[in-house]
Amino acid sequence: MNDRHVALIGAFYDALGRADFAAMERCYHPEVSFGDPIFQEVEGRDRVMAMWRLQLGVRDGLKSEYQDVQADEFSGSAHWTAQYTFSSTGRPVVNEIDALFRFEDDLIVRHHDEFDFRRWSRMALGRPNGLLFGWTPMWRKTIRDRATQELNGFASSQ
């Protein structure tokens, strides 16, 4: 166990829970990359932070809890739960997420979140879209493309 990296992951999630963007940014390496089932690959600290600002803007009342933090000199992991109202639909979401991290210069240089896209889609989008189409590759591409367009617009406006 690497206590510095365990503390770094904890500091990141504590800051996320407070929507403290400056504290979140201090946890990330300038060359950080982020990925998840929706935002597949986001490169660079400015763009990753724009993604978080966008995400927190479409999530009403985000509550996050984290547990099972583990880390060594090079990598780490955690499980976290995000509870929020998806603003586009007004639907409540409780998303269970497994996070993987890589470290460089005692900062997070790679952050990857993994969750069940189909389950998320049913909660966030409801019926019929989330229930009927949440498992299809075409629907996933539609959601991913929309998220990328929103991020591009949001990042260019900052």
Automatic annotation (TrEMBL):
Residues 11-111 form the SnoaL-like domain. This is Nuclear transport factor 2 family protein. It holds the Pfam family SnoaL_2. It comes from the Bacteria.
